[in-house]
Amino acid sequence: MFDKTLMNYQELGIRVRQRREEMNWIQKDLAERTGVIASFIGHIERAEKIPSLETVARLSKALDTTMEWLVFGERQRCEGDACPLFADLEALYSAYGFGRKA
């Protein structure tokens, strides 16, 4: 089972909301661009529900940012094996049309 302590979902939600508001979108706008329902965007922003890896990839693409930033906030906070992992995941998701190409 995945250890929830490895990822701060509250911070992820804050970053999703921050970036959405920078783009002058409401939750419905982001939901339409990611293929999820607007209430789920609200749940993510309030850290009430955990998004799947695919949803994080869709969010990063729609918000024109990286999965790494959504999860960690800053590139410098990416340490050890996590950086190559996210680079590989973004390359894989980009190949399938998700995520943002670096």
Give an account of the 3D structure.
- The chain is mainly alpha-helical.
- It has a single domain (9-95), classed as lambda repressor-like DNA-binding domains (434 Repressor (Amino-terminal Domain), Orthogonal Bundle).
- It is built from 6 helices and no strands.
- The mean pLDDT is 80.
- The longest helix has 14 residues, at 9-22.
In short:
By secondary structure, the protein is mostly helical.
Order of helices and strands: HHHHHH
Share of helical residues: 55-70%
Let me know the average pLDDT. 80
Strand content bin: under 5%
CATH class category name? Mainly Alpha
User: Mind telling me the C-alpha Rg?
Assistant: 13 Å
Major β-sheet annotation: none
Could you please say which CATH topology applies here? Answer: 434 Repressor (Amino-terminal Domain)
Model regions low in confidence, pLDDT < 50 over at least 5 residues: none
CATH superfamily: lambda repressor-like DNA-binding domains
> Could you tell me the number of beta strands?
0
Derived structural class: mainly alpha
- Summed up, the domain count is 1
Amino- and carboxy-terminal Cα gap: 30 Å
* Morphology: globular
CATH architecture, by name, is Orthogonal Bundle
Can you count the helices?
A: 6
Write the layout of secondary structure elements.
Blueprint: H1 9-22, H2 27-34, H3 38-45, H4 53-62, H5 67-72, H6 82-95
Helix pairs in contact: 2-3
